[in-house]
Amino acid sequence: MVKNSRVFPEEGHFELNKVRGLTYSRKGIDTRPLVVFLPGGAHLARVFYGDPLSSRPDFLDYWLEEKGWGILALSYPSDHPSIGAPVPDLTIAAWAGWVAAVTADTLRETPARPVAVAMWSMAGRSVAAVNTALAARGVDTVCFLSLAASPPLPGLNFVEPGGDLLTPEGLWEGGVYVDGFVPSLVRQDQLNGHEIIDEGRYLEHYRCKTPVMLRGTPQRFSTEGSYWNHEEAHHDTRVSSFSDFPLTATISPTDPSDGKHVLCDRANWNFFNLQRINTQVQAIDLDAARWASLRTLTEAIPARLSRNVTGGHLFFLGASGAEATVAHIIELFAEVDKLRLEIRDIIGN
């Protein structure tokens, strides 16, 4: 582990194939699940566990610890002082390989421990790649969880015509989304009746610049600079490889400030859930009774696998939002596990 003055207690670094990211882990009880958290654009994974000056109950880690669940929060390479190792040409595939390697290493002594992957915002674009990489390492990923996350459907993420402006080093600063982050944080302060993270500390310790290709858009980057390629983005996100997508449950905000997630997440992720199930049954000749059971099951999935928490894009910050989100994570983990067994019983594999 590499340490420096901007690394908090319990944080460390993991390096694989010249990709170095920031890690935070808390073991929890071995027989209970491990939740792997992946952050969105322009943010470190500290949004899930806090900083030394923050109140622990304002973050998801505290409430997971109360339930005995483990946490592994992973920050992608950036120029933030806590990492200091930007990889501007990092692809989703390479990031997914790194995530899987860190997760497998964390599970070294408990390889059969069940895992949930919680993706916030931009992290949803890597869902198929991360699922594939974890499976290749034998990790039992029971479910993925969208925390206001966007799946890799083309057109869901806004990109300036010709591509968003990047730093001279080739990193993405957040584009049009940046102006919404601080108001979202203030909204959580209001809901919780106190300041969760002051703006200066938030900007210094939580925000970072992002390798642009993690956004999963046609805007790409190489040593020769920024360029545009739809085919590469399609391949990197595996968007049409439906069998690579896991069952994904959604926890969505409620505020109009994050309308696209409030209104669309449930439907967007249900599309991939049903496509995944369809790939499983295509070659199976189901009798009338099992076919009827499958139809009933798929019609119920949106309600079974979706929950809401009051707030905006950062709805999981603050004790009220964090506690509610963890309660939903635990409910949805059990629901997806049950759903997997029901599907197996119907289709026979």
Write up what this structure looks like.
Helix 2 (92-106) packs across helix 3. Strand 3, helix 1 (60-66) and strand 4 (70-75) form a beta-alpha-beta unit. It is globular and about 60 Å long. The protein is built from 9 helices and 12 strands. The chain is of the alpha/beta class and 349 residues long. It has an 8-stranded mixed β-sheet, sandwiched between helices. The chain has a two-stranded antiparallel sheet with strand order 7-8. The chain has a two-stranded antiparallel ribbon with strand order 9-10. The model is unreliable at 1-5 (pLDDT under 50).
Q: Gyration radius, to the nearest Å? A: 19 Å
Instruction: Give the overall silhouette.
Output: globular
The largest sheet, given as strand count, sense and whether it forms a barrel, is:
8 strands, mixed
β-strand number? 12
Multimeric status of the protein:
single chain
Strand and helix order: EEEHEHEHEEHHEEEHEHHEH
Q: Structural class of the secondary structure composition?
A: alpha/beta
